[in-house]
Amino acid sequence: MAILPVLEIPNPILLQKAEPVSVVTEEIKQLLSDMLETMYATHGVGLAGNQVGVLKRVVVLDCADKDAEPDPIKMVNPKIIWKSEEMICHNEGCLSIPRQYADVTRHAEVEVEYTDENGEIKRRRTGGLLAIGIQHELDHLEGILFIDYVSPLKRKMMLKRLEKNRKRAAEAAALEA
Ligand code: NI
What we know:
Elements: H1 26-41, E1 46-48, E2 58-61, E3 73-83, E4 87-94, E5 97-107, E6 109-115, E7 121-127, H2 128-141, H3 152-176
Antiparallel strand pairs: 1-2, 2-3, 3-6, 4-5, 6-7
The structure holds nickel (II) ion.
The site of nickel (II) ion has 5 residues, from helix 2.
């Protein structure tokens, strides 16, 4: 197991489309385990291949409540096969856009079909945070980020704030050196 570096914007890999996985090899299994470990270590609830620099259709998620049992999910080639008409608005964040949050409207429930790490086809119909997480992570595989859904003004403010945070962190690191 290993903690992988998480790419941040403006890395162009985050804007590219990920390729389907033809066979779930040992290498893919290892990648899924490493991604899950990375997600937990960075306190994320989901992570997509693009975010660790791998343009393959792989996603990990755990959207369980903090006081509930963990619900780690590893998905290969996930596809949304049904979505509710009902929509839900949630304040989202992303490990690739650190400490920036914005309201995004998505389908309240979805059904996802994917291949699990044993090569078996699975289906899961869900709502709440997991439904939001699935839509957010599947967007990553298409090169879409949650900031693509916010207004240009709000987006500009978020990017500015992100730059400011990075500058401050770099200055603090320079002082320590
Ligand atoms: Ni994200």
